Amino acid sequence: MIVTLSINYSRVSDIIEPDHLILTPSVPVRAYRDSYGNWCSRFVAPTGLITLRGKGVVADSGELDPFVPWLEERAVDALPDEALLFLLGSRYCETDLLSPIAWELFGTAPTGWGRVQAICDYVHHHIRFGYGHANPTKSAYQVFHDREGVCRDFAHLAVAFCRCMNIPARYCTGYVSDIGEPPPYSEMDFAAWFEAYLGDGWYTFDPRNHKSRIGRILIARGRDAADVALTTTFGPTTLESFKVWTDELTGSEDAMTSGPPPR
C-alpha cells in the first residue's frame, strides 16, 4: 500500500505534534517524497484487518484563505516552467473535451482572479453535492454532464475549466475545519480544493464550500486525485470504517500536545 496522509511539507514549520502514522498490527513503513513533494508512506499490509491511525497538532494563523481579487492571470509564455504541467489534461480533468464548453461559458468573464471566481461560482451553483454521488472513476467531463458529485468532483471540474482557460490549476487534498463556521457542523471528512496560479503565485479556491475558511491544512497537491490518493492498494481491499477529526484546540502547549483526538 501507498498512503498519502501526512501533513504537507509546506506546513512543516507549523507542526507542534507530528502526525506519525500508526499501524495495527505493526508492520515496517518506509517514507518518501513523490514527484510533487508530497510525503508518502509505503508498506506491505498483512492479510486480514489493518488499522491506520494518526493524530497531529498544527499551529495556524487563524486567518481566512487569502482573497486577492486584483490579481491577473499570466500569459502562457510568461508562466514559470513548473506551472506548465498544470495546464495539461490529466486522468480526471479532460481539457480536450471541456475546452469548447469552458470558452463558451467563461470567454467573456473578467480575467485573472475574476475568471477563476466565475468558474468557482458556476461549479458551486450547477453541481449538486451529496456523498451518495461519489464514484472513484468519475471525471470532470462526467461531473459536468451528471451535475452531481462530492468535493473532489467540484475540484476536478474547476481545475479542468481553469486549464482550458490557460490558467494553471492543481488539485489539493487535506483538512478543512469548521472553525469560525456557524453550527450545525457536518461530519468531518478529508476535503478537496484547488490552487490556481495568478500573479506570481498559487492561491486557494474552494468551489465546494464556496468561501474562505480558517484552519485549512494541506496534505498533498497533484494534477488530480490520481496523484494524491489517500490510499493506493496493489491488490483487493475493503474499507470497513473511516473517521476524521479536525478540531480547534485551546490552552497551554502541554494541554495541546497531551490529548488531542486522532485526525
Describe the model.
- The structure is a single chain.
- This protein is an alpha+beta fold and 263 residues long.
- It contains 5 helices and 14 strands.
- Helix 3 links the parallel strand 8 and strand 9.
- Helix 1 packs across helix 4.
- The radius of gyration is 19 Å and the shape is globular.
- The relative contact order is 0.19.
Task: Give a summary of the structure in a few sentences.
With 263 residues, this protein is of the alpha+beta class. It is 20% helix and 20% strand.
Number of strands: 14
Unreliable stretches (pLDDT < 50, length at least 5) are 252-263
Distance between the termini: 20 Å
With strands numbered from the N-terminus, the spatial order across the biggest sheet is 4-5-1-14
Shape verdict? globular
Share of helix among residues? Answer: 10-25%
What order do the SSEs take from the amino end to the carboxyl end, as H and E?
A: EEEEEEEHHEHEHEEEEEH
How much beta, percentage-wise? 15-25%
Q: Structural class from helices and strands?
A: alpha+beta
The pLDDT mean sits at 92
Identify the notable features of this structure and list them briefly.
263 residues; 5 helices; 4-stranded antiparallel β-sheet; alpha+beta
Describe how the helices and strands are arranged.
Blueprint: E1 2-3, E2 15-17, E3 22-24, E4 30-33, E5 39-42, E6 51-53, E7 57-58, H1 95-106, H2 113-126, E8 128-129, H3 140-146, E9 148-149, H4 151-164, E10 169-175, E11 191-198, E12 201-205, E13 217-222, E14 231-232, H5 253-258
Parallel strand pairs: 8-9
Antiparallel strand pairs: 1-5, 1-14, 2-7, 3-6, 4-5, 10-11, 10-13, 11-12
